Amino acid sequence: MVEPVARIRAYKPSEEDDKLVRFVLGKAHMGLLGEANSSAYFHPFTIAAWVAASCVFIQIMQWWPDYEQFGWLSYLKPLPAFASMAVPIMFLIDWSENNRPAFEKLTQETLRKADIFDLAAYYSRSPSSGLWILEHGQTFVGLIAVDASPDSTTDADLTQDVPLDLKKKGTSDVATIRHFYVEEQFRRTDIQDDLLQHALRRTFEGGEKVKKVRIAYCTLARYLDKTLRKHGFRTVKQWSIRGMTTVQFTESELERKAWQKIA
């Protein structure tokens, strides 16, 4: 039996790869919604509200334990109240004014970006650009996309009235990591380090013009935050979205000189 081999390959302009990339980018931000919701579930205010509502329900239903009459089994009586009160609270957090709508908006913005229109053409405009897919045998593991084209520092999307010339080739001083994602079950192996190292090497060695690489990401993607810091990226800007919890975003960059020291 042949053991599956891990490999990093370039995106192929095919229907299969096209569907794969779009699907992965569509679910990447929605996966972070679960992280944001989990933080909200264990917020002290949420726990206090849950306990208070459960106690009110128990009082109304008269489900307080009665050890003298029912013994230790009576301590199980309040459990249905705590369980039933948890469901609406979790629902409200998931569908709060900012949590789900904020991440849905991020997903929509990602799928409207100019590179999504024609992935092959967009990432072939510079020798320092590229879209790479990491696989383990036939199993998808992750992807990373680096844009070093003349439009690398613009964030226009297809809904804006901004013309984009995909025939315009060249290399910018600043390259942007537009997409970086690894499936959850593989993150503990730090396989994202290999994917990032591969992309940085191809970007900086693709030409001397690229002076630095930048990326904007949500810090809830802790595996990204960890690998970026490990590889010398430094924070240059931070902002946040307020919902049930505050979701922080970071823009980081890595200069060529810093990369050469650790490469």
TrEMBL record:
InterPro entries listed in its UniProt record: Acyl_CoA_acyltransferase (IPR016181), GNAT_dom (IPR000182), NAT_camello-type (IPR050769)
Recorded GO MF terms: N-acetyltransferase activity
Highest taxon of source: Eukaryota
Keywords tagged on the record: Membrane, Transferase, Transmembrane, Transmembrane helix
Domain N-acetyltransferase: 90-257
UniProt keyword Signal present: no
Segments traversing the membrane: 40-60, 72-93
Protein name listed in UniProt: N-acetyltransferase domain-containing protein
Organism of provenance: Neolentinus lepideus HHB14362 ss-1
